[in-house]
């Protein structure tokens, strides 16, 4: 919008704005007469200028349409003073957000997830107080969700059990060194080893039965 088309000169019979209208003309915006008839003390009827002050009049006179301050921006185009321009812009952004929701912000976050996570980490790690508050929140979450913590640890172990310093590696080393005895596997009344999750008797090295492995139970 830096390069508007050159202004066309308005024809003399149709003045461009209220300021230029002669007595008796109407506002080009709202159509109101720009004069009022009044009777003087001497009994003579005279035309008194009465500009309409409508939105059009405000715009062509560069007055904010909310308050009486001068507009900022292009004369005869801009609608608001600096303060009300910011307010109108904020309202427009809020209307847009209400219409499209947060999908654009979410998509932006998804595209830049690593960088945004690093930013968030740097933010809370830059203050000992913020960091303590965050850690307290995490500890509280772990206290309230022991089953989720257990599942997280199990998933972690499934990814890392081959590593030398994993829990399973340490466990196997301790059992081999005789420092630790594995918990006995469950058995039924007849002495048969059973599935860890149901009473099905098992043979071989399996620890859970085929049905439990499939997730049928
Ligand atoms: Zn008007
Ligand atoms: Zn204003
Ligand atoms: Zn089973």
Q: How is this structure best described in words?
A:
- The chain is mostly helical and 217 residues long.
- Among the domains are: 18-61, no CATH class; 113-144; 145-177, no CATH class.
- Helix content is 43%, strand content 5%.
- It has helices spanning 55-60, 82-100, 103-111, 113-125, 128-144, 146-160, 167-176, 210-214, and strands at residues 35-39, 45-49.
- A two-stranded antiparallel sheet has the order 1-2.
- The radius of gyration is 40 Å and the shape is rod-shaped.
- Bound molecules: zinc ion (ZN) (3 copies).
- Residues 27, 29-30, 32, 52, 54, 56-57 line the site of one zinc ion (ZN).
Task: Describe the structure in brief.
By secondary structure, this protein is mainly α. Among the domains are: 18-61, no CATH class; 113-144; 145-177, no CATH class. Helices cover 43% and strands 5% of the residues.
Which properties best describe this structure?
217 residues, mainly alpha, two-stranded antiparallel ribbon, 5% strand, binds zinc ion
Please outline the helices and strands.
Elements: E1 35-39, E2 45-49, H1 55-60, H2 82-100, H3 103-111, H4 113-125, H5 128-144, H6 146-160, H7 167-176, H8 210-214
Antiparallel strand pairs: 1-2
The chain binds zinc ion (3 copies).
Residues 195, 197-198, 200, 208-209, 211-212 line the site of one zinc ion.
Distance between the termini: 68 Å
List each distinct ligand once: zinc ion
Number of helices: 8
Q: What fraction of residues sit in β-strands?
A: under 5%
Radius of gyration: 40 Å
Structural class: mainly alpha
| Mean of all residue-level pLDDT scores | 87
- Residue windows where pLDDT falls under 50 for at least 5 positions: 9-23
**For the report, how would you describe the main beta sheet?**
2 strands, antiparallel
What's the helical proportion of residues? Answer: 40-55%
DSSP strand tally? 2
- Topology pattern, helix = H, strand = E: EEHHHHHHHH
**What is the overall silhouette?**
rod-shaped
Spatial order of strands in the largest sheet: 1-2
């Amino acid at each position: 919008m830096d390069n508007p088309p050159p202004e066309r000169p308005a024809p003399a019979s149709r003045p461009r704005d209220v300021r230029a209208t002669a007595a008796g003309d109407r506002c080009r915006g709202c159509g109101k007469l720009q004069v009022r008839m009044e009777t003087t003390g001497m009994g003579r009827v005279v035309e008194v200028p009465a500009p309409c002050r409508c939105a059009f009049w405000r715009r062509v006179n560069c007055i904010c349409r909310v308050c009486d301050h001068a507009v900022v921006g292009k004369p005869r185009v801009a609608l608001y003073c600096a303060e009300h321009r910011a307010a109108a812009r904020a309202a427009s952004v809020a209307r847009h957000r209400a219409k499209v929701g947060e999908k654009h912000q979410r998509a932006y976050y998804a595209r830049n997830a690593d960088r945004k996570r690093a930013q968030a980490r740097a933010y809370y790690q830059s203050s000992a107080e913020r960091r303590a508050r965050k850690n307290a929140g995490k500890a509280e979450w772990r206290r309230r969700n022991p089953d989720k913590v257990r599942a997280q640890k199990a998933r972690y172990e499934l990814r890392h059990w081959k590593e030398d310093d994993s829990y399973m590696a340490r466990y196997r080393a301790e059992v081999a060194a005789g420092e630790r005895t594995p918990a006995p596997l469950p058995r039924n009344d007849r002495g048969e080893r059973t599935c860890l999750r149901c009473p099905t008797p098992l043979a071989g090295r399996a620890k859970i039965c085929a049905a439990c492995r499939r997730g049928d139970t």
